[in-house]
Design goal:
Four copies of one chain form a homotetramer. Helices cover 71% and strands 0% of the residues of chain A. Chain A is mainly α. Chain A has a domain of 131 residues: Tetracycline Repressor, domain 2, CATH 1.10.357.10. The radius of gyration of chain A is 19 Å and the shape is elongated. Chains A and B meet through helix 8 and helix 9 of A and helix 8 and helix 9 of B. The first copy, chain A, binds a DNA duplex through helix 1 and helix 3.
DNA sequence: CATGAATGAGCCTTCATTCAT
DNA sequence: CATGAATGAAGGCTCATTCAT
């Protein structure tokens, strides 16, 4: 990569970082393109050299967010075989990602797809893509016959994402929260060992 | 109440209903005062006869929303003594309220307090007020010693509120969801009977 | 009409007048909505209370322009029976209208339909409507058999509209120009009297 | 001319061709410098290596347009002596040029001088230069004493230029149109042979 | 009580132009 | 010669809010 291309990438990334940060913190509508430009140390019009519309910017942030959280999850899962331990690893990676100061994945939770009606469909697809990855892990869990696997997934995701509202650094860490979360469900739902 | 005052109230309520509906469905920023006026069958300026600002409208909706959900919970809890059954009743009332087409309480979940920075503090207080009511019910649960009561509450609320994103009328109802939700946690956390 | 409605109409007309004046003089793209607002003694946003878009404004001006020039032509033609005299009357009315300081009809000639791609079709329809009215008059002319009626109409309209580029008040008036114009074509094209 | 200078000329010509094409088709304001750059297979900034401003580009196109149409007219007129036949040859050359897909001369008709206020004077001069050449031909016509030579010229030019609006390839060609046009005026205006 | 025209700050976006490389 | 990232003024449009009636 040439020095020029390097710098170019840096600027795009700077814009993207700034956008992610603002979207995650204040919301999509609440963020102005001027906010983003200022945070990226650019002038208002300059953003549009790199992104055609504000919607496109959100889409790019979403894509990067999904890439990051899927990567994190994939890595976490890679060398774990036991289903419940796998779920815990996933939740730990999930929480670490959506609670990290790096904003991309936080946007996935904070900004609802219909904040940008024109691209709502694409945003939903991105969310779904990730959700399916998590579902695959849930699907491997050995559950008591009467358990509703679908509800389990929805409850767990709801509980996990809600941390974004209340979590502050303190005694609990993403890791301990993930452990507790999985433990609570596992206790009632795990199939009896044969 | 005089007939005139009655009519006045009707207009205020019409505005409030319209605002709640739109806030719950599209979000605060995404809703224009014109949207609300049109839905209340008024002209744009007329809203300001009843409410000084758009923020005030949101505050009023929040207040009404808290009132309603607290009422629902209070009623649900009133003649149940057993702690876990009480929690289930609370969750049932909670879900029925935030999933009901009547929009007030839905706004509590959908619209984050910092959508309106100037009144964010007041909005948070209102949310907290309700959250404390639920906490009181959680506090009565007999839990195993190692269980984290605080996390339990946050997980449950997260899981419950998340229904707003995925719930569609179908085989599950707020009642069955509440039952499942409480059952899952109870199984792992309930203290052994003496 | 109430006094209020009267004032309202006045404001709409003021906007329309200002828009017509600017469109006719500087062109559509070259005119800013701020120009129009200033000329109508309003603030930039105020125009949008009356017209949804700048395109709509152009459409309204076009409509009024067609209405005026068609009225003028209709009146001119009404009590004349002789075909060539009728054509002269039409051309006189046409020239008086497109050269008058009142700008509406001038816009029809000056602003091409594809200045506003989204409404180009509607603008063309409006032009065509008028063009057909003129064609009806041309169709009544008794011409030598070898004459091309269609070309005649196109030449006459071209010559007439071009006055907008060169005409300045002076010895010639719309009336004398119309007379000359028709005379030039009539001499070569009129069918021999039986 | 060196090979380098040759290539340089090629680039200038490419820009000019692209500009002419776009100005003629969409208008001056409606064309962006990016449109032109793209059509010339360059990057946005590169145009400015060859032309200082967008206005300069228009000026250059105008100049080339005048050069071409004057050349065409000069050639057409060169070996014809009879005045009316000369006029027909001029009109044929004129129409062929302003209707040809090669865009330079089309711009002269399509883009009004005050599209670019700063150079409007120069653009008008260029137009006038050509107009005078045509006037010289009209001046040679033997006309009846009462005919207005000036109006004749203006009518003819108006009718001819208007073809740009309505002409589509079909039964008529520039040549047949020119013939008809001159015939129509000649019939009424030609002085009686002595 | 309500109106509805008007406001004006501010938003997203465009685009001719610049300039370091 | 050409690049391409960046500029910054300006444009069309939105919308919470005001106010005379």
């Amino acid at each position: 990569m040439t020095a020029v291309a390097q710098r170019a990438n840096n600027r795009v990334e700077a814009v993207l970082d700034a956008a992610a940060e603002h979207f995650a913190t204040k919301g999509f509508k609440e963020t102005t393109t001027r906010d983003i430009a200022a945070a990226a140390d650019m002038l208002p019009g300059s953003i549009y050299y790199h992104f055609a519309t504000k919607d496109d910017l959100l889409l790019a942030v979403y894509e990067e967010g999904v890439r990051r959280i899927e990567d994190a999850v994939e890595t976490a899962v890679s060398d774990i075989e036991a289903p419940w331990e796998q779920l815990e690893a996933v939740m730990r990676a999930h929480l670490e990602t959506i609670l990290s100061p790096t904003a991309y994945a936080r946007v996935l939770i904070r900004v609802l797809p219909d904040s940008a009606p024109k691209i709502a469909g694409q945003l939903k697809s991105l969310r779904d893509s990730y959700e399916r990855r998590v579902a695959a892990v849930v699907d491997r869990l050995p559950l008591r016959p009467e358990a509703d696997r679908n509800l389990l997934r929805l409850f767990i995701m709801g509980a996990a994402n809600h941390t974004q509202v209340w979590y502050r650094p303190g005694p609990h860490t993403p890791a301990t929260i993930a452990a507790e979360l999985v433990r609570m469900f596992r206790g009632s739902l795990e199939a009896e060992a044969a």
